[in-house]
Amino acid sequence: MSNCPGKPGAVTFKQHTIDATWTQAHYLAFADIDNDGNKELITGKRFMAHNGNDPDEYGKLCVFYYRFAPGPDPVFRKYAISYDKGLSAGLNIVPIDSDGDGDLDLVTTGKWGGPVLFENRMPR
User: Fold this and answer.
1) Is the peptide bond preceding residue 5 cis, with omega within 30 degrees of 0?
2) How far apart are the first and last CA of the chain?
3) Which DSSP state fits 56?
4) Is the N end or the C end of the chain the one with fewer CB atoms within 10 Å?
């Protein structure tokens, strides 16, 4: 198999925009945070990601997760974990069952400070 475009057996990709309503998404994690057997995409806005060189860098800080239905035209639905509370995502989001209750909590940090634990309180 070749990795060169235009060659037989080349690997190609189709781009699907997930969410164009906010900027500076940093770090992506995939984890089943709602215990439905499907992994969600978890990300957040990094405060001042490139120190003054990005659009909307003073925008509201956030951490979101996206449920999605895979397929040729995947559908993503956004849910807020934290929005406009001064918390966001840095260069790492760690899904971990920090309290041993069987669901995944999230730990992250960023330029705003931290670390912070987002305890999963989703009903099972």
Assistant:
1) no
2) 44
3) T
4) N
